[in-house]
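job 3f2a | input accepted
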Amino acid sequence: MDFRDVLLAKQLAKNDNSGEDVDLSDYYTKSQTDQRISSKVAEIVADAPDDFDTLKEISDWIAGHEDSAAAMNTAIVTNTAEIANTVEQTALNLSTLGYQRKNLLKNTAKSQTKNGVTFTVNDDNSITANGTATANALLTLQDINLTVGRKYTLSGCPSGGGENTFKLYGLNTTTWGSEGNDFGSGATFTNRVSNAQYRISISAGYTAENLTFYPMLRYAEITDGTYEPYRPSVAEYIASLEERIIALESVNLITNSPNSSLNTAEINTTEEEENEY
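job 3f2a | predicted structure (277 res):
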């Protein structure tokens, strides 16, 4: 306790009317006060460098870098918009909640013979062509909705194709213009319309001998051209589940209806009778 602390204690004792010694435990000494102030200042400054450990230094720096701060704010706003746009596009592109489909082309064709060429749909949805085309033999695979302005890659045509032999190709169903021609090396293109139709063509007079196509349409950023059969999107899975649920509900309504010729009570009775034998 220094001299000023002693004087303070005496003054407090003099002003106390109880006649007893004053308890100074609730009062800070000067050194304790200085220590607490220094401690709080240290918490504020923390590990700031010497050039920025006072409010004055920080204020001076901000005043001298207003242009940089404005540019930073602009960049933050711009990047925020770009990130939001990317997230939206990703959600639309994947639309599969958990995996990204590689092959967007669903082969809906059945095995059949057209103009002398027999097209056989294999278990993995590849198509094998055999026979001599008496006229252009065309096999339609799918009508599909695509994103306008987006790049896609079409692949799966056997090597050695051409306009006068065989090809895997797409047509937009608005003008029937080309939306990708694959002659065996794949074709990357920017889609121009929302609706397209994809086909296999065997030209008139050409003889196909075990010519197997592996039709695949993928986003151009997917560079791996290894064939992968089409997989349904989550939306398609959900639609399929909804159809099954509706079908099950319909069966339950029929079997549990009092007017049904096959209600639950009868089913149970039948099962009991069978169990007796």
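job 3f2a | The first strand starts at residue 112 and ends at 114.
job 3f2a | closed
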